[in-house]
Amino acid sequence: MTHSPSLRVGLSATTTEPALTGGRMDGIGVYTHALQEHLPHAGVAVLPFSFAPPGHAHRLTASRALPLSYPVAALGDLILPSSVHLSVNRLLGKDAQPLDLFHATDYRIVRMDCPVVATLHDAVPVAHPEWVRPKLRKLKNWLQIKAARKARHVITGSQFSIRELVECFGVDENRISVVHHGVRAEWHDQPSAEERDATLAQHQLRQGYFLFVGTLQPRKNVERLLDAYLALPPVLRSARQLVIVGAPGWRSEDLVNRIKAAQQKGEHVVWLNQLTDNRQLRHLYAGAGAFIFPSLHEGFGLPLLEAFASGVAVACSGTTSLPEVAAGAAVEFDPLSVGDIAAAMTTLARDDALRARCIAAGHRRALELTWDEAARRTAAVYHDVLSH
Predict the structure, then answer these.
(1) pLDDT tens digit string along 87-122?
(2) Which residues form a coiled coil (predicted)?
(3) CB of 208 within 8 A of CB of 197?
(4) For residues 42 and 378, what is the distance between their CA atoms, to the nearest angstrom?
(5) 25 and 83, same domain (yes or no)
(6) How much is the pTM?
(7) What gap in Å lies between CA 97 and CA 8, rounded to an integer?
(8) SS percent in the chain: helix, strand, coil, step 5
(9) If residue 49 lies in a helix (H) or strand (E), which one and from where to where?
(10) How many CA atoms lie within 13 A of 36 on its CB side?
(11) 280: helix, coil or strand?
(12) Residues 131 and 31 in one domain
């Protein structure tokens, strides 16, 4: 049911703006796009805005450019009095109805001429600085901590993340609400066998492979996943490929070299590093025998829901937010143990009954977590903020 809009909300769209992302959305982009699509059904009129680099405002096609670049706006926050703020309402024109609030979904938080709600997905840069780029790391972390405290209210994706935000950002726990993410409805629609098989043939895949989806970076722990796969019995590796879908990220050079070396040795390892077609990605999930997610740290873990909705058995790390998201629907393992990861992969490959139970439980879990429900809970946070 669609409600007539009762709130006007500015939404940060920098992570979804094609002119700024090249068409490739990360997890924050998926989250932001989902809110933009589903909040109107919860009675919220959404106006997307982006921080564009200087001279690039004219390139924006799906959002309005904020009047300053983010570095300039953040610097202004530091050196100007608290009474000075970014005037987003001025962009709407003097005759336009002003925004009720602004929702920053991507950590770019500055003072504005309306209340600001911020989604903080995790505290990785502060909690685990070894996993992020060292360039200006301390300065960026300091700026992020100060920015987080400017938000009138904070939304996060899991109960696990609350502890991190309190400890690392110093956010008052009473100003944090948990809103679980969702999965888009089309993930529940299984592609036809012809569509799926065409995509698999295009990438030289055989149905039943082990699948991983995510950027290649230290936090995702793909090195141990590769080690675990190569430790499997040869007959199992021959029967089931390891398919890694994700662009190379920071500190991925050694991993990329190891993947290429395994391929040169004839191992059944496939790396798809330029896949941006969501339709094809759904086909890849549908063709998998098991989805393996060995991440060391997640504020939520959207790929779990995508796998659940796609009807794929899942094995994942039993750490951070992932047990909360899986809610018992996945086989859990110690992500620091190559042997434990390999054992989980072997179990899902060979135990048909367990795999069937995981698929059924995952399907139920995916039906519980929808973007419509996430949007409804997010709108409730907006109303609560404005009522106090």
Answers:
(1) 898 888 887 899 999 999 999 999 999 999 999 999
(2) none
(3) no
(4) 9
(5) yes
(6) 0.93
(7) 8
(8) 45, 15, 35
(9) strand 44-50
(10) 21
(11) helix
(12) yes
